[in-house]
Write a structure and sequence with these properties.
Length: 139
């Protein structure tokens, strides 16, 4: 009577997992991905920081309206490989986007942004609150 080696089964399981992971390399990359952002309250303004590595300043579009900040970036990439008689050329477009609802109204015309080393920083001054409130008498 021969005994089964439990490590053989584990080895077969790892082989099956590696085969499955190999299929992920063949899958296409999604056309649109989301941007991770940090939102900080700096007292009189909001500061939004987003990592957009590999994008040029001209490929990034920002807009703010109705307490919503929209960040979109799109770039075209191409690669070419040559191996003997075979030539492979691939082109694809990669885009990322994110809409972020701000906790308060902002002065849209006063917003500013900078882009340094792949990090986008957007400063959005808060809108002045209406201090023209009036007292209401209770009968």
């Amino acid at each position: 009577m021969s005994r089964r080696n439990p490590f053989d089964e584990i080895e077969r399981m790892f082989d099956r997992m590696n085969d499955q992971f190999g299929r992920f390399d063949e899958m296409p990359v999604p056309a649109t991905q989301s941007v991770s952002v940090d939102l900080a309250d700096a007292g009189d303004s909001f500061e939004v920081t987003a990592d957009l590595p590999g994008y040029d300043r001209e490929e990034i579009d920002l807009s703010v309206a109705d307490r919503t900040l929209r960040i979109t970036a799109e770039r075209d990439e191409s690669s070419e490989e040559s191996d003997g008689d075979y030539l492979r050329r691939e082109r694809h477009t990669q885009s990322v986007s994110r809409s972020l609802t701000l906790p308060e109204q902002v002065e849209e015309g006063e917003a500013s942004a900078s882009y340094t080393n792949g990090v986008l920083t957007v400063t959005l001054p808060k809108a002045a609150s209406d201090s023209d409130s009036r007292s209401i008498d209770i009968d």
